Amino acid sequence: MPNRYIANIFKRQMKSILILGAGKSSIYLIEYLVKEAEKFDWRIFVADYDIEAARSRIGESKHASAVLLDINDIEKRQHLVSSSDLVISLLPPALHYFIALDCLQFNKHLFTASYIDDKTEVLRKEIETKKLLFLFETGLDPGIDHMSAMQLIDSIKRSGGKIHSFKSHCGGLVAPETDDNPWHYKVSWNPRNVVLAGQSGAVFKENGEIRHLPYTELFKPENTVGIPELGELSWYANRNSLPYIDLYKLETAHTFLRTTLRYPEFCLGWKNLVDLKFTDETLKYDTDGLSLQDFFKLHLNQNGFAGWIETKLTSRFRETADMLEKIEMLIKLEEDAAEDVKEDLKKFMLIDEQGQLNTIGLDEIKTKAATTVAWQTHEANLIINQLFFLGMNDEYTLINKGVCSAADVLQFCIETKLALKYGDRDMIVMLHELEYEVDGKMYNAESSLIVKGEDNVHTAMARTVGLPLAIAASLFLQDKIPITGLHIPVVKEIYDPVLFALNLNGISFFENHRVIG
Questions:
Q1: Could you tell me if residue 62 is inside a domain?
Q2: pTM for this model (two decimals)
Q3: Residues 414, 391: Cα–Cα separation, whole Å
Q4: Distance CA 132, CA 147 (A)
Q5: pLDDT digit string, tens, across residues 475-501
Q6: Contact 457, 56 (CB under 8 A)
Q7: Structural domain tally of the chain?
Q8: What stretch of H or E contains 209?
Q9: Do residue 101 and residue 45 come from a single domain?
Q10: Do 150 and 176 lie in a common domain?
Q11: Parent domain of 364
């Protein structure tokens, strides 16, 4: 499409939106904005290097056009930006800064779901001076998490409440009805982000103290939270929760934590992958002609698999066997003892995990021992099944990625083995947990969201990432978001109308408050 033709179309329209990128997350965003364009007589341009992907997103709409764009073609890119009213960037995060510079140069507004990076932060004053709105972090996480949390926080504060603890959990999971692998996970988002998650460790505030967790301690399946109508999920702490304390105006809260949700089995398995250095970006392999089975054999032999087996499985079973032997001795002692001694044996003192003395019955010890053995057996089977599922016994799938890292191969495994298949459904889960005080009484508040995808293309992830951004863009072009500057959606002028529109589109939170003291 000639640039002159594009310019003429833009010129004829009252308002226009340029969408950069037509990838997986764009499907609901483009669909929503095309309908809005038909309603308000706007023009939508979807620019992507894959012109067929762009065309497939817009359908037959007369209010939308697909444009072939190499993002490195500065002249064409800037022409598109200069001809629009609002730019929505769905490009990789590293490219947003260059789009931001284009928007500043041509006085255009910019919206994206990505985080504000340090380079964009430097542009804050210029953005404010030019009275532009650069709205970042308006997807799912970040995005819906900010808006729903701030609406709840502000509501509690208006009622006179003082918030002592804030925890926010969010995760992209596989829906239970299509959960059919030992990882209990299928990738619905950027697989690279899954592979690298947590490598910088985590920082958060807990009981008044700043806690730093290293990478090796993040993925603990025992860190769980109950989700209404779903059950227990595990969580691992996000990279840095601290900057959001000021943004959420919760400086006095003794606990502030943001996490990612997974099924417990995933966290157990991922911890093992970390221990076995599968997420390492420094270990290099020539993968041309190398099968997954050969890679696993090579990598495990070079990275202490035998010692890991001894530590994780063999020694633990040995410890359990020793414990069972001692319990058998207690049972025999109980059987042979006089009646008064039997009564004493039935209850005695043990130290719990917190170092407190507890009275515990012999029958309870037997039950706990049986539970321990059962869990260790399950854990051992799960670990092996997870490794097999990723390809440890796959002699037919060739990697053929040239020289690449262990992390690169793991990403290939995830893309190959844990992809959403035809008919699969993903699921988004979000939960905010707050403890607050009103008039001397302590309360617990929970606000939860569960969204399921339609299929492996129309995913819950695409819906919850794309719709907030699309809604915010439409509201802004309707002059219903009356602010400018560099923002994330933590202000009432943004979160109230966007959450209201999300609710109309079936993305709704369930909220519950109860007295706890």
A1: yes
A2: 0.84
A3: 10
A4: 21
A5: 999 999 999 999 999 999 999 999 999
A6: no
A7: 3
A8: strand 209-213
A9: yes
A10: yes
A11: 292-417
Cα–Cα distance for residue pair 188/24, rounded to 1 Å: 9
Q: Which long-range contacts (CB under 8 A, 24 or more apart) does 65-71 make?
A: 65/1, 65/6, 65/9, 66/22, 67/1, 67/6, 68/1, 69/20, 71/20, 71/95
Q: Which of 386, 417, 448 is the last residue of a domain?
A: 417
Token reading at 204:
């958060």
Residue 473 lies in a domain: no
Rounded to an integer, what distance in angstroms lies between the CA atom of residue 17 and that of residue 64?
Answer: 9
CB 261 within 8 A of CB 169: yes
Q: CA torsion sign, 375 to 379 to 381 to 382?
A: positive
Q: What is the pLDDT of residues 414-466, one digit of tens each?
A: 999 999 999 999 999 999 999 999 999 999 999 999 999 999 999 999 999 99
Last residue of a domain, one of 82, 117, 136: 136
Tell me how far apart the alpha carbons of residues 78 and 192 are, in angstroms, rounded to a whole number.
29
Task: Name residue, tokens 């970006």.
Answer: 281
Q: What residue spans of 406-451 are helical by DSSP H?
A: 406-417
Domain match, 74 and 96 both: yes
Share of the chain above pLDDT 70, in %: 84
